[in-house]
Amino acid sequence: KQEVTQIPAALSVPEGENLVLNCSFTDSAIYNLQWFRQDPGKGLTSLLLIQSSQREQTSGRLNASLDKSSGRSTLYIAASQPGDSATYLCAVKSEGNNDMRFGAGTRLTVKP
Amino acid sequence: DTGVSQDPRHKITKRGQNVTFRCDPISEHNRLYWYRQTLGQGPEFLTYFQNEAQLEKSRLLSDRFSAERPKGSFSTLEIQRTEQGDSAMYLCASSSRDRLNTEAFFGQGTRLTVV
Does A2 touch chain B (CB under 8 A)? Predict the structure, then answer.
């Protein structure tokens, strides 16, 4: 059974800092990994999708990497802004499965 | 707005009542998922549809829960005889039929409070 863990559970940084969020998973036989952002009381917004054959994806100030063999992914946020404050969730879709397994998320606060 | 749409956004109900939620996926998406999320946790899978066929159900989906997707378009999730433990955010997601483009898109969710 796939288990997804996100560390740290919460992170507070001053505006302008670069930061890294971590996601680990127990079964390396994955189909893809997706990073989401969730604002309080809202749904999930897709940030980046990495297919199992890819090593990284970039969108603006965001860069996500994937190391399947070690069961890890990182989300790098450059030059953080207060508007980046949200909970960031990673989700793994395993081979042969229809559903995505989520971590509990990292709650990010960027202070002005 | 052509994203995933969920209705209602909020629902407060008394214990023992039945509730029904609706999800309208992105129009060209044939895959539809329901998830449940409680405070401080990541979403948990409930059920999956491919077109109108319900192909997978989680053991979280007790016999009080039923989901349908008539004609492979919108979907409904019904909870019968609600319990306080059913209070959660219910999220719907859809994704494309394209095997090379499996990005999932979520709606804004329906927050259920059972009092």
Answer: no
DSSP B115: -
Please name the amino acid found at residue B49: F
The pLDDT of residue B102? 81
B27-78 pLDDT, tens digit per residue, is 989 999 999 999 999 999 999 999 999 999 998 888 999 999 998 899 999 9
Interface probe for A, chosen from B49, B103, B111 (most Cβ of A below 10 Å), is B103
β-strands A106-111, A10-14 pairing: parallel
Q: What is the DSSP string of A28-64?
A: --EEEEEEEEE-TTS-EEEEEEEETT-SEEEETTEEE
If 0-12 CB within 10 Å is exposed, 13-18 middle and 19+ buried, where does residue B33 land? buried
pLDDT of residue B101: 66
CB-based contact A36:A46 (threshold 8 Å):
yes
Q: What is the mean pLDDT of chain B?
A: 93
- Residue ranges of chain A whose pLDDT lies below 70: none
Residue A107 one-letter amino acid:
R
SS3 B85: helix
B35: its two tokens: 């998830």
Residue B99's pLDDT band (boundaries 50, 70, 90)?
low
A87 φ, ψ (degrees, to nearest 5): -100, 135
Cβ A98–B42 below 8 Å, yes or no?
Answer: no
> Hey, what amino acid is at B9?
R
Query: A92 to chain B, minimum CA–CA distance in Å?
Result: 11
